Amino acid sequence: MVPANNWWLDPGDDGLGVGGDSSGGSEACPYDTCTTVTETVLPPIQFPVIFTGGNPGTGPIQVPGTTVDVTATFPNGPANNWWGNFFGNLFSHYSWGVRGANQTYGQCLSQNFGNYSLAGALNQEGGAAQLVAGNDVASLLFGNASDGLAGSITAEGASQSLQAGAGAALTFGRRTASIFDLNLSGVTGAAPAVLANTGAKAAIATAAAYKFAADVGATGALLLGCLAHP
Amino acid sequence: MAIFLVAILPLVDGLRRTIWAVHAHQPVEPIGWMELVVAAALFASTANVWVYYLLGCMVFGGIKGIALLAMGGGGSPIQTSALLLCILVAILLLVSIVLRPITFVDRITLTLFVFSVGWRADSGLFVPDPSLFVGLMFLFASWCVNYWKRRHNKVSGSGASLLHN
């Protein structure tokens, strides 16, 4: 367990700084492909910096207001141990719970929903990755609603409405005398006809159902994962 | 579907060992290339299933991208528009694939598309990069092959019918 007041760094970190530091930083070795990691960060830092899988990080004496290069070495070369780390994490008790200490269930869900998706599996947190490969169901339920809203609404809607023929307005049993039907028979674009005639509508509906099912499954895993503490 | 997610593991580690490691000036390992071969085999053999999931991701991404563009959210409008254009092109090409029986060429091009998308995933997924464009070119090549085959069959069919008559 990493002490709360110590910074720590995974060698495959995102380059945004050590641990939760947001002051920015740089890495010489992204994605565990080298044996030394150097990250430039702003103080205050409490040494030793703990690097996952590496020796304790070292650095110069801190001077307030200036950056510090924190360097750690990986004696066995972390590149050779990726599968070992993966299965080690998978089958150790660390993997069966993602909820942090002193964290409520809701906080766990909202913090980890991004990890339970295709983008999360690829360790991608960028906007474009989350846009295409994010978990829209979990995002809508537990995260920033504006992010997942469009996808989740269409997840259910596309599988239902595309098959049923979206856009067909229905009025049933209307007796409102003040409303006149002055509609003009317009000409629709080519898209609806093309979608219907080529079978693209059904294909997109099937694809939406696949995505929705995958997101629901990942959300189920998130719900389970947040039940337990590491 | 599960195989698709499983195949991502050797793909990521293979790319990490071979492609991304090259940029980090590390020696290339044969294990990495073996992992890529395994991933390619898994992707190609199950392409007829996960292509729907991929299409679903693109459709949702496209809808969200349009919403983002309309609301002015996300990054710069140019970046969002470029990504949206890529997504829409990918949707068109993927739909053209799922609407016909998936051929061997389709499986190969779909696998190459996934590889292309992941090629520079160390710097971000679906970020503007030549590899993304190359991936779309693979899908377009698949469409061209299919178009040429259909046209060829039609022409040869009409020729045969003319001869027959």
How is the secondary structure organized here?
The complex is a heterodimer of chains A (230) and B (165).
Chain A: E1 8-9, E2 36-41, E3 50-51, E4 68-73, H1 82-91, H2 105-112, H3 118-121, H4 127-133, H5 136-142, H6 145-164, H7 190-198, H8 200-225
Parallel strand pairs in A: 1-3
Antiparallel strand pairs in A: 2-4
Helix pairs in contact in A: 5-6, 6-8
Chain B: H1 2-23, H2 30-45, H3 47-71, H4 77-98, H5 104-119, H6 130-164
Key features of this structure:
heterodimer; A: 230 residues; mainly alpha; 2 domains; two-stranded parallel sheet; 8 helices; elongated; disordered N terminus; B: 165 residues; 0% strand
Question: Would you mind describing this structure in some detail?
Answer:
The complex is a heterodimer of chains A (230) and B (165). With 230 residues, chain A is mainly alpha-helical. Chain A has two domains: 8-91, no CATH class; 101-167 and 197-230, no CATH class. Helices cover 40% and strands 7% of the residues of chain A. In chain A, the strands form two sheets. In chain A, strands 1-3 form a two-stranded parallel sheet. The longest helix of chain A has 26 residues, at 200-225. Chain B is mainly alpha-helical. Chain B folds into two domains: 1-45; 50-154. Helices cover 82% and strands 0% of the residues of chain B. Chain B has six helices and no strands. In chain B, helix 2 crosses helix 5. The model of chain B has no long low-confidence stretch (mean pLDDT 83). Chain A binds chain B through residues 29-34, 79, 82-83, 86, 118-119, 121-122, 124, 126-129, 131-133, 136, 146-147, 149-151, 154-155, 158, 198-200, 203-204, 206-212, 214, and chain B through 1, 5, 8-9, 12-13, 16-17, 20-21, 24-26, 29, 52-61, 63-65, 67-68, 71, 73-75, 83, 87, 95, 98-99, 118, 121-122, 124-127.
